[in-house]
Amino acid sequence: MADKVEFELVSPEKLLKSQPVDMVVVPGSEGDFGVLAGHSPMISTVRPGVIDVYEGDRVVDRVFVAGGFAEVTEARCTVLAEEAVALTELDRATVEKQIKDLSEDLDDSKSDAERAAAESRLAVARAKLDALTQTSAH
Fold it and tell me: Do 7 and 18 touch, CB atoms closer than 8 A?
């Protein structure tokens, strides 16, 4: 198992995944980064996007994360996600409705704090739609 890296995905509610994998690709704030066994230790913020989990050269799991942090050691990649949902569980119509509703919330916001919160939620919803669009293009 020396050629595997332990991948852990944690949401505020619970540990979602803990499994040895060949590689995991994380949407870091500075760009996507791949983690293999023996990776240099690092910590990165995670932007809204998709984590790809590899077995061999195949993607076996895709998970949308709304942001958070990733800690990488030589043997482990732990992602602490604000929100995480399997890409297969996202519904395009539901996400499009969220974007419409959140756009209206943004237009109706009365303070800078309300506007910032609405913009943040809208950015996550748009990232979900982008992830679904990229998936259907493959």
Answer: yes
Q: For residue 45, give the nearest of 35, 54, 36, 32 by alpha carbon.
A: 32
Whole-model pTM? 0.84
Query: What is the C-alpha separation between 79 and 95, in angstroms, rounded?
Result: 23
C-alpha span between 6 and 24 (Å, rounded): 9
User: 53: which 2 tokens?
Assistant: 């989990």
Distance CA 49, CA 2 (A): 28
Specify whether the CB–CB gap between 16 and 36 falls below 8 A: no
Alpha-carbon 101 to chain mean position: 22
Mean pLDDT (whole number) for 122-130? 90
